[in-house]
Amino acid sequence: MRTTVGIIGAGPAGLLLARLLHRAGIDSVVLESRDRAYVEHRQRAGILEQGTVDVLRAAGAGERMDREGLRHDGIELRYDKKRHRVDFPALTGGRSVTVYAQTEVCKDLIALQLKEGGPLLFEAEALAVEGADTDAPSIRFRHEGREEVLQCEYVVGCDGFWGVARKAIPAELTRVFERTYPYAWLGILADVPPSHDELVYARHDRGFALLSMRSPSVSRLYLQVPEGTDADSWGDEEIWDELERRFETDDDWTLDRGPITQKSVTPMRSYVHEPMRHGRLFLAGDAAHIVPPTGAKGLNLAVGDVVTFARALSYQKETGSAEALDRYSETCLRRIWQAERFSYDMTSLLHRAPDATPFEDRMQLARLERIAGSRAAETDLAEAYTGFPFD
Q1: Nearest residue to 103 via CA among 43, 52, 59
Q2: Active site residue 297
Q3: Which residue in 22, 72, 196, 289 is the catalytic one?
Q4: Does residue 293 have an active-site annotation?
Q5: Does residue 6 contact residue 150 with C-beta atoms inside 8 Å?
């Protein structure tokens, strides 16, 4: 089997890349180790930056997103029982974000790929990337009980942190930057309409809480919990009681409760792998970087990576110049490090460390008061939250 671009992983990054390449007249093959049902139902991010929304629309994948997605023009910060709304369009020249789950993005892109695009092979496990530093790299994979080889001109690893693509880059050529946080998020899905029409980020002495949503009838909420927490160790009423404490305000706002349908615990870490390219192997998404979820950047960074690659390969096709491909890692990393900074800032602003001192508590409150009282500080948050531009 031969193709121009071999793509490992049918998450949103790999699927969107295949779509972008198809529209540019460049053929590709997507290999996904899981089955279609798994890919279409794994719960992940749900906040799309303005740039991600624009890319999906331009790729012909925005129809259902525009119909069912929830446009949000701001977020609310809560601290010390106070409420402060950050107005995105007023601070960014009109930009916003959209709540539309990653599962839905994947469903839309899978349908388009199967209808119009190149081969998309489910239950095709990539075993290794070979010849990455040659002009003819290949992906060895297992499909339907047989081991096969996909011959490529380029390989893009969208196969996540545990995938095989990153392992093909020699260790002596890499640098890794990472931080593990001493807390996690206990997340729930609940069959109850959201208690607020925008996301609420709450800083509390008992820990962080986030009010989010999946739809007008399904709420998604999170609690800061100690690292290593077992989700089943929390009872349903215990979760609602704790959420109520952390979202408490001085006014008459109330948290509506409903049946909890899912519980999970998300660890918190920051990770960057440099470089993101070796020869004709390119890394994208979680294969190269991870952010704590506080800044809603993970999916959006992956979109930035594949947009950069698709533009660079299209440029080479049109001009014969590999200049943009050669700059892929450098170009992506500029945006990635800004997103890492923002995610770290939001995490340290809103979460209470296990060994936090009264001084550190006061510093968090002072930083929040600065955002609430300074248009410049508020604008910096709004610009970062709605998304850094694609270079």
Answers
A1: 43
A2: yes
A3: 72
A4: yes
A5: yes
